[in-house]
């Protein structure tokens, strides 16, 4: 089918589901800690990844236990099966080869991760693929795993754009949001690099809420603001960009999701107050607080990447049908009370791997078009 995806709820026809093949570790370096800082009880800020005349610092890798990865594989295949049973065509990225262990640029190196959370680095804007500038160094080339999929849509007529790629030296990052957080130590002066270019565009597509002709974009740093400037100019005359500020540190799809026109799933009513005025009139479904027994018990050395609200990260298959984690009976009942058909699917280790159903998927073909849901 031809690429066509304007919103988060229209009947889903084609989707790409991520891969966890050869996911072995996380690397604790500046970009990683900045991105996940709100969920780390303690962070030590340091700048070990920049190559200097001497030997580079040893990588600070945090290994992931094999049993978690094995169970993640099982759960991903369960997501694929659930979607196929709903008559959705599922496409997959290329898998990470075990011999590919590192991302390297002239400025830095980092451990590589597989293309699992596909939502983050690609924005589908109608008939256009937009590869967004990454926020985590380990994911710098992640969209290349999607090249065969994107090339196929391009051959069928899709536009295909890559936003400017950041140099991603330490000086590229705006640490102001993290420095205002009580959860972390203040970040000091960046380690200098010969490739410093000041603050650069860095922005994930999961910071966007797509609503037909309108895109709501969350901004918390200068990096985000620069990228939204680019999006606004690039999409002018086709989409309206609505800026919202500090709904979260980056992604908003565990804060607010549009389930159908006029209905939002939100973490709290306070979230709606930060949205554009027309969205504040939509009906709100407030997600119930997560229960502690909704999550597996982890060891002290297991790195927790997301908040307990990650299960708000649902995937709509139609305006009436939603994939929800089967570990969240409270959320299932809440959505059913609002007359949604809920498809419970197992997803155990979402807090370890940084994503729910919405994060793990990239919807490429939906029935909807550039409707005017905010001003119509």
Number of helices: 8
Number of strands: 19
Overall tally of structural domains: 1
Identify the strand order in the major beta sheet.
Answer: 4-1-19
CATH class: Alpha Beta
**What separation lies between the terminal Cα atoms?**
28 Å
Order of helices and strands: EEHEHEEEEEHEHEEHEEEHEEEHEHE
Overall 3D form:
globular
Task: Kindly report the CATH topology.
Answer: L-arginine/glycine Amidinotransferase, Chain A
Structural class from helices and strands?
alpha/beta
- The CATH superfamily is known as L-arginine/glycine Amidinotransferase, Chain A
Rg calc: 20 Å
Main beta sheet: 3 strands, mixed
- Tell me roughly what share of residues is in helical segments: 10-25%
Mean pLDDT: 91
In the CATH hierarchy, the architecture is 5-stranded Propeller
Runs with pLDDT <50, length 5+? 41-59
Strand content: 15-25%
Brief overview:
The protein has 376 residues and is an alpha/beta fold.
Notes on the protein architecture:
The protein has one domain: 5-stranded Propeller (L-arginine/glycine Amidinotransferase, Chain A), CATH 3.75.10.10. It has 376 residues and is of the alpha/beta class. Helices cover 19% and strands 22% of the residues. The longest helix is centred in the N-terminal third of the chain and has 20 residues. The strands form 7 sheets. Strands 4-1-19 form a 3-stranded mixed beta sheet, with helices on one face. Strands 7-8-9 form a 3-stranded mixed beta sheet, covered by helices on one side. The radius of gyration is 20 Å and the shape is globular. The chain is built from 8 helices and 19 strands.
